[in-house]
Amino acid sequence: NNDNNNNNVANENNGNSNTNAGNKPSVPSVDPHETPQSRERQEFVKKMMKTSWDGYVQYAWGENELMPISKRGHSASIFGRTKMGATIVDAIDTLHIMGMKEEYEKAREWITNELTFNVNTGVSVFEVCIRFLGGLLSIYGLTGEEVYKVKAKDIGDRLLPAFNTPTGIPKAMVNLQSGSGHNWGWASGGCSILSELGTMQLEFNYLSEITGNPIYAEKVNKVMDYVTNKPLPSNGLYPNYIHPDTGNWGALSTSLGALGDSFYEYLLKYWVYQGKRTNNDSSGREGYDNAMKAVREKLVKKSHPSGLTYIAEGKGSGLLHKMGHLACFAGGMFALGSKGAPSKEWEEWYLQTGGEIASTCHESYRKSPTGLGPEAMMFDGGNEAWTSNSGDRYYILRPETFEAYFVMWRLTHEQKYRDWAWEAVEALEKNCRCGVGYCGIRDVGRTPPSQDDVQQSFFLAESLKYLYLIFSSDDTISLDKFVFNTEAHPLPIQNINR
């Protein structure tokens, strides 16, 4: 797999790859957006990555995540009772893109010699798919190294039993050894969750592509066909829950944040993955556009008095005027889907609304005493892009706002997106730097902040990657050649000239 042309990743034989990531050897950069300031800021983000990584290596190597203050390992319940090096697998493509050669080699060596999925424990099918399978597939696509494909196939095979249901819709949890699966008890009477069952199509299709075995693609494509061909409730919105045995919708709540988010993202990105956005072919995205038509009609709202665009949540027949931080990703999703949209009017609406969502999320950061946004924003009498509920004001190093800035930057090159990203870098450095790494904070509305002592693997996989790429040239992981999975792992777009 040597069709990467050295122009999409920090180049191996480019001795100057640190400041010159993604350019061909000895060719001076012609990207007008690469400036001394952007290079300096990119270098700063890279230093943050080095701090995060070095703390993990020294105190939590092989564990899933780092507790930077306690200086020990941490594992969330989504990973079961495992030490599967989540941070290593999640971060390795970031190390590679940033040209951090020594760190990358250490990660590669651990994956080669130590990483095993033969563990008797239940794990989240969704989280393991996006973090582990996604991370391995991404670094395989960037390097072509066989070991990553072998490991990706192993974890893909261990996730397959989750699909053994009457409808083919996967269960939420699977035991990596026995293959037995079950759903979350709290999820609307044993239902599967829309964002979980609908966020495997990129990974499993690419796994089929590189292994030559169609089984993975068949499983996930069947799920997406089943769900998108099923009649919707009368409001035209997708419920967050569906039962894997009966195929019935669960509770009638709808969200572009938690429980829904990446289902919509992958409706669009599977179309992107097939090369259709790059080749300007608008066929095959009807499922996405139809879903967005209902979202536009029912959920996209303007706040009073400031006129901020936000995405409400559907609750039964009513609305909850609340937008989670997770839903900030939609700024990037709307913008990415403007190319190839069904009409000129939709094209303009997608790009404009993407920018407005990014701006609303920025507003929640701007209003915050720490400069970091809360887990949820309200848009009601007393709140606008903020929440008076301190329980909703935590910030766990989430990337979604930066993701929106990144896509908007790449598509518009409006300087404000780089400025906003830099504001966020400074806020992270000031409030989240802790012990031997970076921590989430318990209330963005309080200074000095109270830190939570967890360095999430997605901070290295997503947050720092998007912030780095905002200050990179456009040909570093070009949006015409790569599509990011929902954990910011870039996968090679198919059917295009590379």
Summarize the structure.
By secondary structure, this protein is mostly helical. Helices cover 43% and strands 10% of the residues. It is globular and about 55 Å long.
How is the topology of this model organized?
Layout: H1 36-60, E1 65-67, E2 72-74, H2 86-97, H3 101-113, E3 122-124, H4 125-143, H5 146-159, E4 173-175, E5 181-182, E6 192-193, H6 194-197, H7 201-211, H8 215-229, E7 241-242, E8 253-254, H9 261-273, H10 286-298, E9 300-302, E10 309-311, E11 313-315, E12 318-320, E13 322-324, H11 330-336, H12 344-367, E14 376-379, E15 384-386, H13 400-412, H14 415-431, E16 433-434, E17 437-438, H15 457-470, E18 482-484, E19 490-492
Rg computed from alpha carbons, rounded to a whole number of angstroms: 21 Å
Structural class: mainly alpha
Let me know the number of strands. 19
- Portion in helices: 40-55%
Oligomer: single chain
The helix tally amounts to 15
Q: What is the spatial order of strands in the main beta sheet? A: 3-4-5
Query: What's the main sheet like?
Result: 3 strands, antiparallel
Tell me, rounded to a whole number, the average pLDDT: 94
Uncertain segments:
1-26
Quote the distance from N terminus to C terminus. 11 Å
Strand content: 5-15%
C-alpha geometry: globular
Description of the molecule:
The protein is mainly alpha-helical and about 500 residues long. About 45% of the residues lie in helices and about 10% in strands. It has 15 helices and 19 strands. It has helices at about 35-60, 85-95, 100-115, 125-145, 145-160, 195, 200-210, 215-230, 260-275, 285-300, 330-335, 345-365, 400-410, 415-430, 455-470, and strands spanning about 65, 70-75, 120-125, 175, 180, 190-195, 240, 255, 300, 310, 315, 320, 320-325, 375-380, 385, 435, 435-440, 480-485, 490. The strands form eight sheets. A three-stranded antiparallel sheet has the order 3-4-5. It has a three-stranded antiparallel sheet with strand order 8-11-12, with no helix packed on it. Helix 2 packs antiparallel against helix 3 and helix 11 packs parallel to helix 13. The longest helix has 25 residues, at about 35-60. The N and C termini lie close together (about 10 Å).
